[in-house]
Amino acid sequence: MKALMFGWEFPPHILGGLGTASYGLTKGMSLQQDMEITFVMPKPWGDEDKSFLRLIGACHVPIVWKDVSYEYVKERIGKYMDPQLYFDLRDHIYADFSYFPTNDLGCIEFSGRYPDNLMEEINNYSIVAGVIARTLDFDVIHSHDWLTYPAGIHSKTVSGKPMVIHVHATDFDRSRGKVNPRVYGIEKDGMDHSNHIITVSNLTRNIVLDKYYQNPSKVTTVHNAVEPLSQDILTINSKKGTNDKVITFLGRITMQKGPEYFVEAAAKVLSRTKNVRFVMAGSGDMMNQMIRLVAQRKISDRFHFTGFMKGTQVYEVLRSSDVYVMPSVSEPFGISPLEAMQCGVPTIISKQSGCAEILEKAFKVDYWDIEAMADAMYSIITYPSMYEYLHEEGKAEVDLITWEKAGWKVREIYNNVLNY
Hints:
The protein is an alpha/beta fold and about 425 residues long.
């Protein structure tokens, strides 16, 4: 079976959980013997792992015909994709897009990020998708998150093939109720045009049913998973450098992630014991506010802000932690607790997170219940038997949550929309 997937980011260059999930799912699905995946993204950087899929950058797809040689194309984009594919795509330009600003290969430039002109890039991405869909042979379209829904819809229109959309989050999660009507419109349009909808948790599924008015028979939950640790990560040792216990928050420092509840709980723990330090790893629009809140609570000497971290840096932080906390206000899934538990780090998660639906060996608290969160932190760092239980059992539980299993669930959805 051949799947044409549209995503927005892919490791090692990721800005959030979307890229991690896209990588894990595609790699898990590639273990199916007859599965072929073409993954399209706005802009690849050239160092992505392409061993288990074909990767196409929208920035390398011509929408305007240019008279260029094979050697020139190879010199320009040979690092990123087979030059012959460029010419195959050029043969399937289906409209006059000469009014678009393009480069000397007739391609649109993309930032590969989330720029101020994001809506423009989403629209441009959908234009490029039409050329791709007219060129390639595939059975099913799979669009990851709202940024790629217009591309999926355009591909479905061009090809007549069924479309599955993957809801990793909704604007109700990102905006904490202050929904952007334009984003909501794109999300609703994608859901309405899809043949099936995958959600990353039942929490998200309920939002799709209640807020986007979708038929329950059309919406299936496929929980995220976690990639097995590589040998490089397994060899990372703790760099704590202190006898104090370390409790870590790792993620975007935004309203959705509940960083203020972490700070308030930390203050309560420090009122009971001093042999503990707190790490807030990440960046976001609430970072300065959190720095001020830490100062107001007079715990600055026990608090560390690391800034944005990725790749092995994340695991260096986790390996140096005694407790991991994810106090999200609204978390469609949340892969980071699984990564922490993989490293044997006892974990506290909010009940308002999708991963709470599948994790049993983690503390679960309401994000707003600062007392319960502080009690859980204090208990883990104070009672060795509790720490050891969560250290051992948490890792054992997460090791069974694999992307291969998630991939087979997605394959079953493909089979159903194709009536196999």
